[in-house]
Amino acid sequence: MNVLFLCTGNSCRSLISEAVFKHLAPGGWHALSAGSQPTGKLNERALALLASKGIPTEGFTSKSWDSLPVTPDIVVTVCASAAGETCPAYLGPVLRTHWGVDDPSHVVGTEDEISAAFERAYAILRARIEAFLALPLDALRGDPARLKTELDRIGRIDA
């Protein structure tokens, strides 16, 4: 099962999501990330945060959804619609859910405030991914409507 974490720039939140999912997922579940308008580079703070958590990111790149190596089965958008961001709409015939998270790379403030924003985004995404992976995944593979309901519910979890 292939899970695509999607946002506009594919440099921060979708990167964190992909890395955490790959780090925690059982065999047979794969994550990738992409953007509708990728920045072409990964956010250095996001990379440092993941390294501090012991989560590998070697080989990760900021990439377009136009160059995906596989067709995703599930697409999770991570843009924060409430913050005025427009999430890209993946147009393939897949199960879609939205897990909006504020972009920590846009926070302006002290080093502590910026670091706290990155920690908060990481905590929310990790909690949601852990909840996803705690679902009875084998049973839900055959029930897309129930899986969507569960994924939408998970998108409301706040760390």
From TrEMBL:
SUPFAM superfamilies: Phosphotyrosine protein phosphatases I
Keywords: Arsenical resistance
Domain Phosphotyrosine protein phosphatase I: from-to ranges: 1-135
One protein family per Pfam: LMWPc
Entries under CDD domains matching the protein: LMWP_ArsC (cd16345)
KW Glycoprotein (keyword) present: no
InterPro entries referenced in this protein's UniProt entry, alphabetically: Ptyr_pPase (IPR023485), Ptyr_pPase_sf (IPR036196)
Annotated protein name in UniProt: Arsenate reductase ArsC
Organism, as annotated: Massilia hydrophila
